[in-house]
C-alpha cells in the first residue's frame, strides 16, 4: 500500500519498544492521524538533577545538559531515538511527538553551580536532543540556562540544527566577549530538497547558513557538524558543504558516519522506503560497508569513523576539504577561570 507522506514527520510508525512484552503499534497513516497523532504532546517531568557527567575522554567537555527528551525535528537517522524507550515510549513517532520537558532545568543547574568545591568545566548544551527544537520558542528553557551561564560566567558549548539560536544573541554576545560560549550548527546537507525530508522540522538550509553568518559576524565562535554522512544521500556533497560553510564564517568543522544503532534501523529503513525507494538497497548496502557488513554499530567511536574502502574515501575527501578550506584552523578553547560561584557582577564587587 502506498503511504502518504506526512509533512514535518520523519518516522512513519511507532515501532515496538523493546522493554515491553506486549506489542502495540500505531501507524501515522491511519485515518485518525491528523486528529490524534500529528499534534505534539508536552509532558512535564521533574528530574532531581539535570547535569550529566560524560564518561570517558573522547569528547572535549565533561558535562552535558538536555532540557528536552524527544525531538520535534524528526530526523529519521537520529541516534537518540532509542533513549525514548526508557520513558515508556516508542523510538518512532513518539520520539517526535511526545516531548518530555524539564522546566525546572534552570533551577537545578543553579544548584549544581553552587555545589561546594565545584570547578567549572564546559557544559554541552545539548548532546542528546536539540535544545533549540521548535518548543523552545515558547518555553525558553534554553534561554534561561544561557542566562545562568552568563550570570555565573560559566563556559557553555551549544549544538543545534535550528536558527532559533539567533533569538538569544543578546546573551550569546556578552558570553562570547568573555570567551564563554561557542556554537556548533548541524548542517548535513545544503540540498534543500533533501533537507526537507531528511530533517523535516529543522531550519531550512538558507536559514541555517544565514544563522552561521550572523553568529560569525557577532564574533561568536562557530563550528559546523557535517553529520551524519549517509552514503548515497549526502556523501557526494562533502566538498560543496565545506566550501559553503567556510564562506559563511565557520571556523572549523567535524563529521560522523551514519550508523543505525538499535531501533534507529527500522525507522530509517521505513523512511528510505517512503522517500527514496529506488535507492533504498544501495544506501543500506553502502552503510553496511562502513561497519563490517552491519547496519548498526553500538560503539560510538567506531560508529562515527567506520572502516573499509567507502569510509576511507569519505575520510580522504574531508581531509582534502580541510586543507583547501580550513587549513590550520583551530577552534578556541573556552575559559573556565572566570567562574567563582558568585552570581552577577554587582555581588563580585563585595
Briefly summarize what is shown.
The chain has 350 residues and is α/β, with parallel strands linked by helices. The protein contains 13 helices and 10 strands.
Give your account of this protein's structure:
The chain has 350 residues and is of the alpha/beta class. The protein is built from 13 helices and 10 strands. The strands form 2 sheets. The protein has a 7-stranded mixed β-sheet with strand order 2-3-6-7-8-9-10. Strand 9, helix 9 and strand 10 (252-257) form a beta-alpha-beta unit. Helix 5 (141-152) runs parallel beside helix 6 (169-177). It is globular. The chain starts with 32 loop residues before the first helix and ends in a 25-residue tail after the last helix. Residues 23-37 have low confidence and may be disordered.
The proportion of strand residues reads 5-15%
Number of discrete helical segments: 13
User: Quaternary status of these chains?
Assistant: single chain
Biggest sheet: strand arrangement: 2-3-6-7-8-9-10
String of helices and strands: HEEEEHEHEHHEHEHHEHEHHHH
Give the SSE layout.
Elements: H1 33-36, E1 41-44, E2 51-53, E3 63-65, E4 68-69, H2 93-97, E5 98-101, H3 105-113, E6 123-125, H4 136-139, H5 141-152, E7 156-160, H6 169-177, E8 181-186, H7 192-198, H8 205-217, E9 222-229, H9 238-247, E10 252-257, H10 264-275, H11 280-290, H12 300-305, H13 309-325
Parallel strand pairs: 1-5, 3-6, 6-7, 7-8, 8-9, 9-10
Antiparallel strand pairs: 2-3, 4-5
Helix pairs in contact: 3-5, 5-6, 9-13
Amino acid at each position: 500500500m502506498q503511504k502518504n507522506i506526512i509533512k514535518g514527520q520523519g518516522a512513519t510508525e511507532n515501532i515496538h519498544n523493546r522493554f515491553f512484552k506486549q506489542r502495540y503499534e500505531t501507524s501515522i497513516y491511519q485515518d485518525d492521524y491528523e486528529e490524534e497523532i500529528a499534534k505534539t504532546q508536552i509532558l512535564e517531568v521533574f528530574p532531581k538533577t539535570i547535569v550529566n557527567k560524560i564518561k570517558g575522554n573522547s569528547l572535549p567537555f565533561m558535562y552535558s545538559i538536555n532540557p528536552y527528551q524527544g525531538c520535534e525535528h524528526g530526523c529519521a537517522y537520529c541516534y537518540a531515538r532509542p533513549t525514548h524507550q526508557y520513558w515508556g515510549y516508542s523510538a518512532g513517532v513518539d520520539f517526535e511527538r511526545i516531548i518530555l520537558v524539564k522546566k525546572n532545568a534552570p533551577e537545578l543547574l543553579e544548584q549544581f553551580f553552587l555545589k561546594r568545591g565545584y570547578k567549572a568545566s564546559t557544559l554541552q548544551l545539548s548532546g542528546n536532543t536539540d535544545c533549540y527544537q521548535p518548543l523552545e520558542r515558547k518555553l525558553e528553557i534554553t534561554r534561561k540556562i544561557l542566562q545562568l551561564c552568563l550570570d555565573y560566567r560559566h563556559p557553555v558549548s551549544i549544538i543545534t540544527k535550528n536558527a532559533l539560536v539567533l533569538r538569544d544573541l543578546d546573551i550569546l554576545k556578552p558570553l562570547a566577549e568573555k570567551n564563554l560560549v561557542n556554537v556548533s550548527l548541524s548542517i548535513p546537507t545544503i540540498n534543500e530538497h533533501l533537507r526537507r525530508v531528511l530533517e523535516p522540522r529543522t531550519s531550512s538550509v538558507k536559514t541555517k547558513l544565514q544563522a552561521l553568518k550572523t553568529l560569525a559576524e557577532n564574533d561568536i565562535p562557530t563550528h559546523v557538524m557535517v553529520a551524519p554522512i549517509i552514503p548515497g544521500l549526502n556523501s557526494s556533497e562533502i566538498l560543496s558543504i565545506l566550501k559553503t560553510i567556510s564562506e559563511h564564517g565557520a571556523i572549523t568543522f567535524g563529521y560522523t558516519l551514519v550508523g543505525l544503532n538499535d531501533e534507529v534501523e527500522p525507522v530509517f529503513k521505513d523512511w528510505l522506503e517512503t522517500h527514496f525507494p529506488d535507492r533504498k538497497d544501495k544506501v543500506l548496502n553502502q552503510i553496511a560497508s562502513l561497519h563490517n557488513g552491519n547496519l548498526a554499530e553500538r560503539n560510538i567511536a567506531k560508529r562515527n569513523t567506520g572502516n573499509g574502502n567507502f569510509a576511507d574515501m569519505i575520510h580522504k575527501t574531508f581531509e582534502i576539504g580541510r586543507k583547501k578550506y580550513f587549513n590550520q584552523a583551530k577552534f578556541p578553547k573556552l575559559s573556565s577561570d572566570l567562574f567563582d560561584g558568585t552570581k552577577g557582577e554587582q555581588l563580585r564587587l563585595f
